[in-house]
Design brief:
It is built from 5 helices and 2 strands; from the N terminus they run H-H-H-E-E-H-H. By secondary structure, the chain is mainly alpha-helical. The chain has a domain of 90 residues: Cytochrome c-like domain (Cytochrome Bc1 Complex, Chain D, domain 2, Orthogonal Bundle), CATH 1.10.760.10. The N and C termini lie far apart (54 Å).
Amino acid sequence: MSNKLSLKFSSLTAVALLMTLGACSSSSSSAPVDLSPEAAAGREISINAGCASCHGADGNGRIGPNWIGLADSQVTLSDGTVVTADDAYLYESIKDPAAKKRRGASGIMPSNKLTDEEIASIIVYIRALK
């Protein structure tokens, strides 16, 4: 094989390998490109703490509610009360999941041992999901 052809083959092989590795990588490690460093840190905390297993790696919901568009939206609780999902509501919902159950929620969010700083980071992430 000529050097030119060999170099071309090596380049194509490298590109194919990189594309394969990219396709096999976990979606939990690829953050949306427009997150601030603070929001990206909150996303990583939510993944590492297990929040993403119910709320989705990108906040798109699964068993748990969707986080996209949640910040400052109106949330109906199980008793019919409507509250705004402001920082206080988000903090309380993360810190004490049983405090205000959403109407229609089928699961029970487990308690966690997140610090106030970690919760604040997750809230920054939730706010970034518009």
